[in-house]
Amino acid sequence: MSAPRTLLGFPDWEPAALLDLVDLARDLKGGLARGHLGGRVVVLYFANPSLRTRASVEAACARLGATAVVLDAGAGGVWGLEHRDGVVMDGTAAEHVKEAARVLSRYGDAIGVRAFAGLKDWGEDRTEPLLSAFARHATVPVFSLEGSARHPLQGLADAQTILERLPDPRGQRLVLTWAPHFKPLPMAVPNSVVEAGALLGMNVVVARPDAMALDPEVLAAADALARARGGSVRETSDRQAALEGARVVYAKSWGALRHYGDWEAEKPLRAQENPRWVVRAADLERGDDPFFMHCLPVRRNLKVEDAVLDGPRSAVIQQAENRLWTAQAVLLRLLDGGVSRQGREPEGTLIA
Amino acid sequence: MSAPRTLLGFPDWEPAALLDLVDLARDLKGGLARGHLGGRVVVLYFANPSLRTRASVEAACARLGATAVVLDAGAGGVWGLEHRDGVVMDGTAAEHVKEAARVLSRYGDAIGVRAFAGLKDWGEDRTEPLLSAFARHATVPVFSLEGSARHPLQGLADAQTILERLPDPRGQRLVLTWAPHFKPLPMAVPNSVVEAGALLGMNVVVARPDAMALDPEVLAAADALARARGGSVRETSDRQAALEGARVVYAKSWGALRHYGDWEAEKPLRAQENPRWVVRAADLERGDDPFFMHCLPVRRNLKVEDAVLDGPRSAVIQQAENRLWTAQAVLLRLLDGGVSRQGREPEGTLIA
Amino acid sequence: MSAPRTLLGFPDWEPAALLDLVDLARDLKGGLARGHLGGRVVVLYFANPSLRTRASVEAACARLGATAVVLDAGAGGVWGLEHRDGVVMDGTAAEHVKEAARVLSRYGDAIGVRAFAGLKDWGEDRTEPLLSAFARHATVPVFSLEGSARHPLQGLADAQTILERLPDPRGQRLVLTWAPHFKPLPMAVPNSVVEAGALLGMNVVVARPDAMALDPEVLAAADALARARGGSVRETSDRQAALEGARVVYAKSWGALRHYGDWEAEKPLRAQENPRWVVRAADLERGDDPFFMHCLPVRRNLKVEDAVLDGPRSAVIQQAENRLWTAQAVLLRLLDGGVSRQGREPEGTLIA
User: Fold this and answer.
1) Does residue B88 sit in the same domain as residue B196?
2) How many CB pairs under 8 A join B and C?
């Protein structure tokens, strides 16, 4: 048997392998025979609430004939977990990941983990502390159900959605626009959106207030990937200019890296920026017949106005549906229950 | 494929279709072959706690070969949902039903929703605000796991139980007696009990303190239905007279409509009425060899004394068991996986 | 069909039947065909958090083709249950076990219940109040997912682990050593460990501070069982002497019986004893090439130092894995879906 694999973020996999996942997802959505994981058990550990991720991965398991075992630590039904090595465990966590990951590896054929950012120390959050600890200690594949720095299942579904609507996205403009919120949100989704656009060779423009710049290392790596595939990644605070020529407008809120862990310092900034960054229908009209994306959940009229979400440009339900198909693709690839594709070069079928 | 159907309350369906559900439930209980929903996924969204409904619907799915995906919002593992249109979502609900219902429709073949009454505004609660919003936006069948005004799965199981014990219930007396509690409870179950009795053409008498009158519109509609089927619906505050000739005594507590949302105003009433309305074994002796029903959970000796629940007249476990069979019938009908019944006229087999 | 059976603790079953469970678990682990409970529904009621028990029993159900229905009362998604007879239910419990057990018996083919000790009255906790009430009222098999006085699924997995590492454990020394904690823990696991050692005919030595003596009745019964099988059970406060010649060292924390329900009285004791009883690698060197056991979760470096848990003597992951196999054995035996073993005398294959 091949070594266990992990999927904590796009950087873990080769671009061709990521595109193969999207291609497999599209085949599954198109009706490819299913039920290839009969008898398998997939353990899903949720340290945080979830609707789409939980429902889509459970439904994906059911469609493949596998059984999902859900451990809802966020709801209090399961112990909290310690991930730091060597500490005296006299706090709230009753169990260490060293045990949990190894034990759950004996019960399940793969382990999915949801662990949001702590939002105190980006230096720690960017390492995916809980997920990395699971990956280090588990003896079966570990995959992210949204981590502290990336949300690869979202990124894959976003890539699928873009390809469905824009068959050749290379060199096309994707604008990721910051959106208001009354509290700082993690950067897992924006990072994964940028990486998904880069994977597809798009020209990704992150439009945000200067204070909301994303991690420069994440952007530089994504830019290098994008350039190798015919695109680019850059940031700007001029949203109106960014929207010119946009084929995709993706809205998402996140917190200021420079005030990470210090919400009081960020509050005055928000009072100033929030009202200016609500996404409105008129914003989309500046683009080149763009479609609108958001990972959901979305706070209507706080971040994005109803007219955008309910209008004909919205792709948010399609995005969410694709979570079902990409989750199946990931499960099939991680569990080596891969579907025979008779000698096709997977990546070749996407972007020649 | 036929249009998605909903079951939020008995008024949504024709009487013949409701009786067909009960008939199918009885066939299933009698051993009719099962497993007709293999590979289907049923999403169950619980905004409130549940034991019977959750366990019976999950077991019903398993018996039919379907997989239940449970989202436990009440326990904190899933976002709360906004159902009002056009609001700025700056409160506790992180997601709108517009998104949730459409997204879950992509993952599941049907959606069950449990959403208790808010107990502040009956004008709103009587519209089933969350369930109606789900039904409006979902693209798959939506059914109630107990709403704010009705509990149709309970009503169906109650109808099945009555028919099992009283093969021709037309014109027989069903007394729904108000029972004490230390807080105001919703009216979903009493409304559904009245409607179930009306559906069976029974003479339904609601015995309650004057302050606990049920919604007159619900009663009037139920009375019209009952009259068309050989029965009637009326209210009284004279429990002793109501019990004369009763064939079924159904106990349930609910709050005062006139003080809806104002518990302080209701409290003095309760101090007066609670002690007089406990259901005791002697009360049953006034009936015509009646059997005793309650939807459960029941607070023993607060609402109903042990001697009733543990005595030979109690049908409460039979009622609860029938939740399993009626849930299967509802799932089969909603998912169009209907069981062929070879030309039988369903309603004809129940009440000629 | 035979009468429903229960498994609340080892004393409920004959030793030969317990050893048969372990033997069946070993066969299943060795690859014996599975899937014998297709279509069955197992209800799991959790009054308390769980990781291993929940995941292992759900995975066991999946491997046998059964469906687990999980009711997570600890997380707030299900009503709390009253188990006392005759009380007026005006407290927090909205439902009585009398109803819950009978109702769930209609939905499922077996009921597992997790109900930790109340830690107020050992006289009550030793009777397994909630589990006993379930067993009394259910009409299907009831089994413990950890009770207030015993944890038989743990005891079975421990017996399997010992037999895997020590094929003839009779007369060999198993040291159960008390370990520190910052609060009093229940005695379910230590009692079951002692009973597992006795079942295997081992010389069980419970090493603990004098104040932490276990229930003398439990020890006396275990000693009688052990003696009939070539072993013994005794207590001591001299851990160093106890460890001489140990083949198995099992660590676990529990509270002082003499201060049960009075943590303030126990605290000064803890300040004195905790530092002396941490399990360290050097402790294991006193034994006869022993292996180390713990039921998990374990608070690292508070109860047991990293070097023990991460060292070559640790059997804790093997123990946890065996929860999966013994759970399957219990489900098969309780549900009468037993696996044919062609005339072998089960107990004969373990300890002749």
Assistant:
1) no
2) 102
CB contact under 8 A, B103 and A298: no
- Chain A positions with Cβ closer than 8 Å to B: 46, 49-52, 54-56, 58-59, 62-63, 72, 74-77, 182, 296-302, 306, 309-310, 316-317, 320-321, 324
Which CATH number belongs to the domain containing residue C59 in this structure? 3.40.50.1370
Please name the member of A78, A88, A103 whose beta carbon is closest to the beta carbon of C296.
A103
Number of structural domains chain B divides into: 2
Residue range of the domain that includes C201: 154-318
DSSP H or E segment with residue A88: none
For A206: left if phi > 0, alpha if psi spans -120 to 50, otherwise beta; the answer is beta
Q: Which residues neighbour C49 within 8 Å (Cβ) at sequence distance 6 or greater?
A: A76, A77, A78, A79, C74, C75
Report the C-alpha gap between A222 and A201 in whole angstroms.
10
Task: Choose among A73, A273, A60: nearest CA to A177.
Answer: A273
Contact criterion met (CB < 8 Å) for C75 and A71: no
Distance to chain B for A71, nearest Cα, Å: 10
- Determine the residue type at C78: V
Map residue C282 onto helix, strand or coil: helix
- Note whether C100 and C214 are same-domain residues: no
Give contacts of C74 with chain A, Cβ < 8 Å. Answer: 76-77
Chains that touch C (3 or more CB pairs under 8 A): A, B
Q: Is residue C1 part of a domain?
A: no
Per-residue pLDDT of chain C (352 residues; tens, 9 = 90+): 344 489 999 999 999 999 999 999 999 999 987 668 988 999 999 999 899 999 999 999 999 999 999 998 876 667 789 999 999 999 989 999 999 999 999 999 999 999 999 999 999 999 999 999 999 999 999 999 999 999 999 999 999 999 999 999 999 999 999 999 999 999 999 999 999 999 999 999 999 999 999 999 999 999 999 999 999 999 999 999 999 999 999 999 999 999 999 999 999 999 999 999 999 999 999 999 999 999 999 999 999 999 999 999 999 999 999 999 999 999 999 997 544 443 333 333 333 2
Are residue C145 and residue C160 in the same domain, yes or no? Answer: no
